[in-house]
Amino acid sequence: MLHVDSGITGDAFRVFWYCGIATYQKGGATAKEAAEHLGLTPQATRRIAKELAENKLLLVADVVGRTIKYKASPHIVSSLSGAEQSEEAAAYHLPTLPGRRTGAKRRA
Fold this sequence. Notes:
By secondary structure, the chain is an alpha+beta fold. It has four helices and three strands.
């Protein structure tokens, strides 16, 4: 995730860290909560969280009306035991980084 070719910016990493890691025990966080904590605009935070969810780095934990709560993919973080984590992770596809295309040849 931290490699320059990953396509993850500093703000995207901060949003991922807050929604996925820092609030994992609470079940995740909304983009608005992340914006208030990180000092970003709510619009930018929603855009970043949506992009991270499209790439399966964040998962949609809950939707109430138009409010979406995000959490980390079980492939990335979990407080469960190994067996429980395997069962939970089996339901999701592996995350992909936006800057890396799998199976495609790179042009020189």
